Structures are given as C-alpha cells and as structure tokens.
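Sequence in, structure out. Go.
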Amino acid sequence: MRFSHANEIWTDYPELVPGVMWVEGITGDASVHAPIAKFNRIAESRLATHTEGELPEVQAWRRVFSRMGLKPTQYRCASESLLRRFKKEKALPQLHPLVDLCNAISMAFAIPIAVFDVSKIDGPLEVRYAAGTETYLAFSGETEKPEAKEVIFADQAGQAHARRWTNRQSGLSAVRDTTHTALIVSEAMHASAHMDMQKLTTTLAEELKAVWNATPKIRILDKSAPQFEV
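Output:
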C-alpha cells in the first residue's frame, strides 16, 4: 500500500499538512464510549465559545473549497459537518468503533479524518485531480462520476474513495465489522497545522493502543517527503 498526494496538489496547496496512519488488528466489538465522551467534551467546549465556522481549522478548509470552485456553505469538510450535527443533536450515530473514535477526535481537533478499509482499495491511493472517468460508490448504492478537476482519493483501478477532497467518502471502502486493517488520513490547512497534526496523530495512536492494543505506523507528509508506504 502506498498513499500520496499528486505534485499538482502540493503545488496548488502548499499549506497542506497530511497525517497518515496504518493500523492492523481492528475489530468491530471494541468499546470506545469513554474516549468518545472525553473528546466530545472537548468539542463542546470549543463550540461553547465559537461556531464551527469560526474555528481556524474549518475556516482554512472553507478557503480551500472556495479555491476549488465550491460553495463552502454547500460543500463542507467532514469535520465541519460532524460539528454541525453534533451541535444540533448532542451526539453522533454509532457506526463502527474505529469510525466513531475518529469522528470524535476529528471534532475535538476540528480537522477532517478519513478512515478506509484497505482491503477495498486497489493498489496505491492518491489524492489528485479527477480525469472525469473515475467511479464513486455513494452510501446510497448509486454510482457517481466525479467531475474533471475535482479533488478525489483515487486508486489504480479508477475508483474514487472520496469526493471533493475532505467532503465525502465512498461507501466502497467504508469500515465494516469485517475490517481488519485501516488507512487513516487526516489533513489540515490552518496556520498551526503541523503542530496540531502531530498532536492529533499522537492522540489517536494512544487511543488505538488502549482500545485495540494496536501500534499504528505514522507519518506526517510534506512536499519533500510526500509518500507513505507500507
């Protein structure tokens, strides 16, 4: 497995800071109630003084979406969408322990986190501009075609595992009870992104160790070292 961002992405978005993690030994029966409650309290405290749209991590992604030609209040990064739902409902639906944990940490840091079942990814995974020929499986079961020049997570088979960058993941590689190995990708664009990404990946690694006794492989990428490989 190899994960990277295309050269064009680094050129157009030099402020990008990705944190990539590979973790094995995941099961669907783990209990994550305690850590989720802890991270939810952090999200609540941040939302008590600012709206999600005022958080610098979210504002940076809104600027990116505008640069991609997308209306940022119509298409939102995943962390903003989670915070909006959490603010209204005071909780998020339970999907899978790993996804639930990552969602809670994503809200606490206001940084989008994508979680992929690597068994559903064909070869290397690259964040790049779409050619317009790729396919995307929505959670509804419908197959979509990303627009040309849209930023997607694409494998070598032309499957898009996320659309509009950090906006929406694919149902194809969604984590399930059968998932054993996952690729976790966090991406930030704000001024303190590098420091915050170090904190986020360290925090998540500690929780993975505590819940699954798993020690993930971790790397913070940059333009000079743009690839993560297992």
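Check: Residues 23 and 86 are 27 Å apart (CA to CA). Helices lie at 7-12, 33-47, 56-67, 78-89, 97-109, 193-212.
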